[in-house]
Design brief:
Ribosomal Protein S5, domain 2, 5-stranded mixed sheet
Length: 138
């Protein structure tokens, strides 16, 4: 007996050292970040950040999907931006819509492409990446 195949999509997003993996499947519009529903995710600023692609796409697109996002690494804002990128790419891959792609790109291009900037590594001889201890010759 052959089981009917359900469409499942796995998409990833990265920001600084945070990585997010979104699993999209047919559903009723549930979005969870690390098993926490998006509606009660704290802090509020990261919740709003993750909601951006959903607001741009419109209710009719994401209300038929359940998206589970697993995020690890980085700080809360890096995680929020990685999750946001994963959600946006999941919506794009699910709908295959060129119009949605242009809407998201015009709103904020980092939702689709990603921002490759990372923290510069610390070097010896000082407290940070560029700062050095002062020298005195007198």
């Amino acid at each position: 007996m052959i089981m009917p195949t359900k469409k499942v999509l796995v998409v990833s997003g990265k920001r600084k050292t945070a990585t997010a993996r979104a699993v999209a499947r047919p559903g009723i519009g549930r979005i969870r970040i690390n098993k926490i529903p998006l509606e009660i995710l704290e802090p509020e600023i990261s919740r709003e950040k993750i909601k951006e692609p959903l607001l741009q796409a419109g209710d009719d697109v994401w209300k038929q999907l359940d998206i589970n996002v697993t995020v690890s690494g980085g700080g809360f804002m890096g995680q929020a931006e990685a999750a946001r990128m994963a959600v946006a790419n999941a919506l794009l891959k699910w709908t295959k819509s060129a119009h949605l792609r242009t809407v998201l790109a015009e709103y904020d291009r980092t939702m689709i492409v990603g921002d490759s900037r990372k923290k510069e590594p610390k070097k010896f001889g000082g407290p940070g990446a560029r700062a050095k201890g002062q020298k005195s010759y007198r």
